[in-house]
Amino acid sequence: MILEQIVARNQSDRRRIAVLDDDPTGSQCVHDVSVVTTVDADAIAAGLSAPASTCFVLTNTRALDEAEAVARTRDAARAVLTLGLDGPVDLVSRSDSTLRGHVLAEADAIADVYEQETGHAVDGIVFCPAMMEAGRTTRNDIHYARVAGEDIPVGDTEFAGDTTFGYRSSNLRDFLREKSGDESIPVSSIALDTIRTGGVDAVAALLREASGRQWIVVNATEYADLETVVLAIRTVQSEGRHFVFRSGPSLVRPLAGLSGTQPLIGPEIPARTGLGLHGLIAVGSHVGLTSRQVARAAELGGISTVEIDVPTVLGDGRDEHLADVVRRIREGLAAADMLVYTSRTLVTAEDPSASLALSVRVSNALVSVVKAVRDAPAWVVAKGGITSHEVAVDALGIRRARVVGQFLPGQISLLEPVEAPGDVMGTPYVVFPGNVGGDDALAIVITVMRDATRPDPHELEGDTA
């Protein structure tokens, strides 16, 4: 099998995979790997200690302007490459499967550092935004997102209208030219027919032609396509070729030599003990799917909601309002799962950087609330990419965690804190992107977490008999 050959190559080469993740949602397609929430050499070294290991390093660069994003990406890449590991490292710039983020700037940043620290020129930048499980696939160089069961060119979806990272092109070659403003940017692609008919040898032949940081678009609609491409990459890497990667979540799985797993069920979840039975759901995402998921979750019952009013947070009444939100959550957790959310009216500015600054202020308010109550819930769910990063780092203080698995195939990861403050250790933490899952996905997650943390009534009867 191709995957077994990738595993063997990774082991024999003592190759590590370092994923610089622009929000914490990139680990949705993998399991039993490390996530480090800080650009710290000791934490990253722990995550990459074993040969063939994979470690996600959270950079949160999607919440930064381009200059800050480039600086942080450079720092993270340099921290990885100066560890003195006993084997090569794949540097992956992982971002959104619907193309939002600092695509070219971050890829160029890791290529710069790779060349400086290794002394090897980067032949190609492998561009693969696929996320198979969410219907984010590429064919004929056109990237698609599955919306309401239909594959839609991603430039025609709501994601392309993002106030900070909007775009028009669905064809990934055109997308790169659009974002770069340069019609002459070197771009090639690996077609599905080449992958499926020619196999590893044909893909390797194309990869050997890359030079000068040529962008290489990967067409793929299933994991078998990606596995063929990765084995071809391993083949030409052994010949002295060098690549960096800009990807969605799916490519990391074959790069790491991992297969898929079954969705998590309650007994598999390392539940926190000695606390109340109720959880906290923090919602920052504003996409339409999130609103539908929240509405469906409310139908479960046993959930109380508290709203953070955005205009108040951005005005003079911030502190008093947030103190009241904290009080209501603490009191409510005694009887129900609590869902705290930012009001749904999206506040924006004309300038993209100003819009980003406003969203960060709102995110900070939500984070401060979670931090103030973090000792109380039995589990925490964070909804939204930027939200889930800020909650993990600033609210919960998680420094390093293990990806336990996912609640849906390849979607919605559960993290188990490995290095964190004492009042957070043992708290299951769910990273839930804003733009994945069906309308019932949040309800599914809550149901599984309840199964994990609430004792069986029959067991309780036995304890008291």
Description:
The chain has 465 residues and is of the alpha/beta class. Helix content is 39%, strand content 20%. The protein has 15 helices and 18 strands. The chain has helices at residues 2-13, 41-47, 66-81, 103-118, 172-180, 192-208, 223-237, 252-255, 288-298, 310-313, 318-332, 352-373, 385-395, 441-453, 457-464, and strands at residues 16-21, 34-36, 54-58, 89-94, 124-128, 137-139, 142-147, 150-153, 187-190, 214-218, 243-247, 280-283, 303-308, 337-342, 380-383, 400-408, 411-419, 429-432. It has a 15-stranded mixed beta sheet with strand order 9-10-5-11-4-1-3-2-16-17-18-15-12-14-13, sandwiched between helices. α1 (2-13) runs parallel beside α7 and α6 runs parallel beside α7 (223-237). The longest helix has 22 residues, at 352-373. It starts with a helix and ends with a helix.
